[in-house]
Amino acid sequence: MKEIVVISGKGGTGKTSITASFAMLAGNDAIVADCDVDAADMHMLLSPEIKHKEPFYSGQLAVIDADSCIQCGKCADICRFNAIPYQEGIYKINAIACEGCGYCARICPTSAIHMEERKAGRWFISNTKANNTMIHADLDIGAENSGKLVAKVKNEAKKIAFKQNAPYVIVDGSPGIGCPVQSSLTGASYVVLVTEPTVSGLHDLERVVEVVKRFKLKSGCIINKSDLNHAIYQQIIDFLVHKDIQLLTSIPFDPIFTNMMIKGKTVVENGDYAVAEKIEEAWNKIKIFNQI
C-alpha cells in the first residue's frame, strides 16, 4: 500500500480539487483521507455518505462542581489564561480559554475542580461517489490538537486500506508547514506539491520543500495556473531541478476549477476537458513513480 500525500505551501492553489480528482481517477483502488481538518472541504466534491462517526477527544478541560465550590476565588486568581470568570454569583470555566493545565484543580481547597477529557471534534467513515471509502473529520469551534486528529484520520484510513487490500491511500493535507502538515507527512510514500507561479506561491513552495526534504520523502510538483507569471514559473522550474523534484504537470489558469466546485463536482468529471487530461497525466505519473 502506497500513501500519496498532497500538500501546498499556501491555500488557494487548487490542492483539494486536484486531490479529489485523484480520488475519482483511483476509484476503489484508493482510500481517501481528508487531513485538512482545520478547514475540511473535500466532502463538497466527493459527496460522502456517512456510514460511521465517532467523537474525537484530545486534551483536558477543567470542570467545577458548584455544590463543592466555596467561592474562594483562588482558581480564578492563579489562572494565567483568565479562563475562570465570576459570573452570576458563581465561578465558571470558559471552555475556549481553558488550556487544560490542571493547576486550578491542584490548588482548589475543597477539590471542587476536576479534569475531564475534552471533546475536540468528530471523525467519519463514508462512502463516496467515486466508489471508495473516505475518512474525514471536523474540529469543534476553538478546539486545538488538529495534529492528533490528522494522525487519527490517517491511521483509520490505513487500517481500512489494509483490510480492503487497497493499493493507495490518498491524503489531502493542510496548507502551510505547521503541525497538521508534518503529521500528514509521517509515513508517506510520495508527496505531491501543488503550487502556483506567484511570489507567495514560490516562497511557500520553498518552505514546504524544506519540510519534505527533512522527512526524506520522494516528491513531485504540479504547477497550477502556470501561465499567471512566466518569470516566476521559470523560477519554480529551476527550483524543482535544483531540488531534484519531478514536475508532474503544468496546468494553465482555467475557471473550470471554480465552476466545477460550485457544482459540487471534481474537475475530471468534466469529460475530455484539457485540464482533466492534465490531472490524469499527473496521476498516471504518480502511479509509475510508485511502481504499482
Automatic annotation (TrEMBL):
GO molecular function, one term: iron-sulfur cluster binding
UniProtKB keywords: Iron, Iron-sulfur, Metal-binding
Residues annotated as domain 4Fe-4S ferredoxin-type: 60-88, 89-118
Protein name stated in the entry: MinD superfamily P-loop ATPase
Domain of life: Bacteria
Pfam families in UniProt: CbiA, Fer4
Secretion signal, residue range per the UniProt entry: none
InterPro entries associated with the record: 4Fe4S_Fe-S-bd (IPR017896), 4Fe4S_Fe_S_CS (IPR017900), CobQ/CobB/MinD/ParA_Nub-bd_dom (IPR002586), P-loop_NTPase (IPR027417)
